[in-house]
């Protein structure tokens, strides 16, 4: 596989999206849960899509805007994961693992946004 430039945020968001897809597949096939899964797959895969799109922004403001959308999608994904855990669709061990990845992405996005905003001034 050819990579143009190593970017930890893109790499982690792709890995996270793959985990979300696998979790949703598990929820639909094993737990017969379809409604929250659809929301989760939309928000969980949108994080990386917006991070990737930010790399090709027209301006620093466009870059920041796309990263901010990714941050909002991360917050939504965190909500759906917590709801799935509270409603007992996801076991604690699975939840702890995937929520820690979600929180890590959120922290990386916040740091990237802070850096981008300070460089914009």
What does this structure look like?
This protein has 121 residues and is mainly alpha-helical. The chain is built from four helices and no strands. The chain has helices at 8-30, 35-54, 60-86, 92-120.
Q: What's the SSE blueprint?
A:
Elements: H1 8-30, H2 35-54, H3 60-86, H4 92-120
Helix pairs in contact: 1-2, 1-4, 2-3, 3-4
Strand fraction equals under 5%
SS content category: mainly alpha
Which ranges are low-confidence, i.e. pLDDT below 50, for 5 or more consecutive residues?
A: none
Assign a percent range to the helix content.
over 70%
Number of helices: 4
SSE order in H/E notation?
HHHH
Largest sheet: none
Taken from the alpha-carbon principal axes, the silhouette is: elongated
The radius of gyration over CA amounts to 15 Å
Terminus-to-terminus distance: 37 Å
Strand tally is 0
Instruction: Write down the overall mean pLDDT.
Output: 94
């Amino acid at each position: 596989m050819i990579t143009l430039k190593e970017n930890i945020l893109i790499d982690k968001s792709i890995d996270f999206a793959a985990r979300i897809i696998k979790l949703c597949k598990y929820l639909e096939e094993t737990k017969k849960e379809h409604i929250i899964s659809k929301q989760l797959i939309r928000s969980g895969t949108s994080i990386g899509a917006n991070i990737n799109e930010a790399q090709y922004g027209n301006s620093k403001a466009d870059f920041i805007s796309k990263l901010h959308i990714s941050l909002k999608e991360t917050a939504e994904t965190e909500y759906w994961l917590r709801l799935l855990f509270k409603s007992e669709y996801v076991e604690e061990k699975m939840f702890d693992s995937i929520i820690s990845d979600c929180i890590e992405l959120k922290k990386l996005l916040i740091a990237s946004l802070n850096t981008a905003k300070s460089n914009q001034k």
